[in-house]
Each structure stands twice: as C-alpha cells, then as structure tokens.
Amino acid sequence: MLNNKKILLGITGGIAAYKCAHLVRLLVKQGAEVKVILTPAAAEFITPQTLSVLSKNTVITQFFDANNNWNNHVKLAQWADVFLITPLTANTLAKMANGLCDSVLLATYLSSKNKTIVAPAMDLEMYQHPTTQQNLQKITSFGNLIIPAETGELASGLVGEGRMAEPENIMVFLTHFFSRNLPLYGKKALVNAGPTYEAIDPVRFIGNRSSGKMGIAIAQKLSEFGAEVTLVLGPSAQEIENKNIHLIRVQSADEMYNACLQHYNLQNIVVCSAAVADYKPEIVSAQKIKKTDETLTLKLIKTKDILGVLGKQKTTQCLIGFALETENLIDYATKKLKNKNLDIIVANAVSEQNNVFGSDSNKITIIDKHNKITNFEFNTKHNIANHIVNYIISYIPKQT
Ligand code: CTP
User: Fold this and answer.
1) How far is the CA of 120 from the centre of ligand 1 (A)?
2) pLDDT tens column, 113-132
3) Which of 22, 106, 189, 382 has its CA 20 to 30 Å from the CA of residue 97?
4) Summary count for the chain: helices (H), strands (E)
5) 185 alpha carbon – ligand 1 mean position (Å)
C-alpha cells in the first residue's frame, strides 16, 4: 500500500523519538521512500546516524549541511507525498499553530500544502492543557491531520493519555490516508479461501489440496484497491503479511459458514473462493478410531453450501463465486451463477495444462449475471487476482 510513497518524517524532541527507528523500518519494509528531518532537540534523543542507516537517506538537521550546502526546505516539502511529524512536542505544536520558523522542520512544514499528519506525544497534563488542545484544533483547521496520542504509561511515570501512537498504528493511519483516492475506498469486502478439514476423529480429517493462494491474492488486491477486507481462511500454510486484512482462521466448513454469515450483512463485495468440502462425516468419533476391522465405512453428509446461503440472503452485496469444472465449463458455471444467485462467477477449467490446486498460475473465464463472458489468458494467480478485482470494480456501478 505504501509502495513508492514518499514519506518525509519530521521528528521533534521528545523521549518517544526512539520509536521512530522502528517506524522508519516499517515504512521502508512497506516500500516507502523515507527522508528524515530532526529538530536540534530531537537529535538529543535519537541519532541522525541511526535514522540515516534505516532510511537509506541523509538525515537533515540544519538549514545547511556540513559542506555548507543548503537543505532546500521547499524542495523537500514538494518531494513528499506526506509530511509526518512525530513525536510532536507541545513546543513544536505551538510554533506550528503560530507560524514560527526557527528550524528546518518548521520551514518545511510552512512550505507543505495540506499534507501534514502529526502524532503528538506529551505528558498527561501537557496534553490536556487548554493551550495544547487549542493548538491542536488550530492546526486541524489549517487542514493538518492528527493521529491522537494513546493512553498508557508516560515517561513521567504517570498513566494516561499522551503516549505517541505506536508505529504500527501510525502505519494503519497512513494506509487509510493513501487509500482515500483508491476505487474501493469505503467498501467492505469478505473473501473466503483455502480448503476445509472435516474431522473423522481427533487426529484424522477429510480435506483437499487447495492452497488458498487464489483467494489470498484476491484479498490482497481488494485491500490494495482500498477495500476494508475480512479474509476467512481455511487451514492453509500461507502467511498473511498484510496487517490491514482482518484474518479469521477456521478449520471446518461449519466454522467457515458461521464466520462468513456473521460478517455478511455489512459487506459490499463477497468473494467465495474457498474449496469447501461438500461432505463431512456424519459422526465424528470422540476417540481415535482403531484399525480393528478389515474395512471401515464412513457415512458422509452434505456440508452447508455457504455460497448458496449467501446468495439466498443477498441484499446489496456483489457476490462472486468460483466454479471448477472438468467439462462443459460455460454451461455448468452459468447454471451455478443462476442457481446460487451470484453476480459474477469465475470459472476454472481443470485440465492437465491447468492444474489449479497448489499451483501459482491459473486460467479463468469470468461470466456475469448479464451473460457477459470474458476469457483471460493463462497467468499467475497474482495477475489473475488483479483481473478479477478490476472486473469487480467495473461491475459494481452497473449492479442493480
Ligand atoms: N461452495 C460453498 N460451500 C460449499 C461448496 C461450495 O460455498 N459447501 C462454493 C465454493 O466456494 C465456490 C462455489 O461454491 O465458490 C462452487 O463450488 P463447487 O463445489 O464447484 O460447486 P457445487 O455447487 O458444489 O457443484 P458441484 O460440486 O456439483 O460441481
């Protein structure tokens, strides 16, 4: 989400400045380009060298560097997509509120137009002081955004509001900030993915070879396009790195059903890509089954058709299902689209060339409820996810 975003980080002189080392690491890890400006007081709390190594850029502390070159604050302000000032002390806040300009950080702030985000950090009484609160209101009225201080133990030993927001929470704030212009900003999306395991006894289960890669790639794309994503994931070995995705891990079809139903009403987009087991053992043995007999017969009963139930309960959601077929792809997929009351179905033809399970590639055809059929070339699941999410984005306005 922060890939190639230019973040100018301004650090002022508070004890919480040490947290900025971690913040810079998180920003760089997310693909952001980071430049750092320190006030002279901040350099007492964290060294420019540390920040320079972590940000891979020279850190600016003065109007002129050691070689007497001018650090052009106007250029810095223009370079940045966002000027993030944290920790913001009461002193710098007061200067920002009143247009003072006695450091390169403040000169850069005055040159930045409507793109400054601040995360204050102060002791309890300082943060609550009417002047501080008034100054915060004042800089908000200038178009600046505030990441409120958090509650907890403060440097003074007091407990209360005033701690600098944790770097992880600042990252979430920035992600939302950059999502505002994305096509799915403000939309909620639910994705289910992966296999389900249906217990036979405490150690055995019936499962399938689904890796969950396709659904995870879709969840990731939806998040990249600005949606607030909940991913209900069956037992998959895949790790979900994106902290903006709300991950719910489940094992069985029943657990997946419950999780999906619980979140369904609030959603704008719902993608059911999970390889849900169609049948489960009627009786789950409480103890491990011993191999006493030559044969073992298991009676299987149908699981709930999650997508089918979601289709019946559909109100305004855009509902997307998958169809995996070995023959009559378009015919069978179209029937599923109609029977399950879907808006879009993503059809996979399983063949020797297109071994969907576990592989990193796939070939799909998208059919929508207006009978539009679109074929896509064989591609990586990552690119296929991009096609699917782009299709959803263009489809949503047409939804009736
Ligand atoms: N699905 C589901 N719950 C189930 C079975 C399937 O939600 N118990 C969903 C899958 O996530 C997929 C779609 O239904 O999006 C198609 O699944 P598939 O098993 O191919 O279709 P079925 O309707 O079960 O038909 P059949 O197996 O007979 O082809």
Assistant:
1) 51
2) 868 999 999 998 999 999 99
3) 22
4) 13, 21
5) 30
Ligand 1 binding pocket mutation candidate from 278, 327, 332, 339 (most atoms within 8 A of CB): 278
CATH for the 6-179 domain, from 3.30.450.20, 3.40.50.1950, 1.20.120.1760, 3.30.70.3270: 3.40.50.1950
Q: Give the C-alpha distances (Å, rounded to integers) separating 190 from 151, 234, 383, 390.
A: 32, 14, 20, 16
Q: Which two tokens mark 20?
A: 């900025």
Out of 3.40.50.10300, 3.30.499.10, 3.30.540.10, 1.10.1240.10, the CATH code matching 188-398 is 3.40.50.10300
Tokens 């289709």 -> residue: 311
Active-site residues, by number, are 208
Res. 357 pLDDT band, cuts 50 70 90: low
User: Which residues have C-beta within 8 Å of that of residue 132, sequence separation ≥ 6?
Assistant: 90, 93, 120, 122, 126
Question: Which residues of the chain form CATH 3.40.50.1950?
Answer: 6-179
The pair of three-digit structure tokens given for residue 280, joined into one six-digit string: 């489960």
Query: Given the CA of residue 278, which atom of ligand 1 is nearest to it?
Result: 8
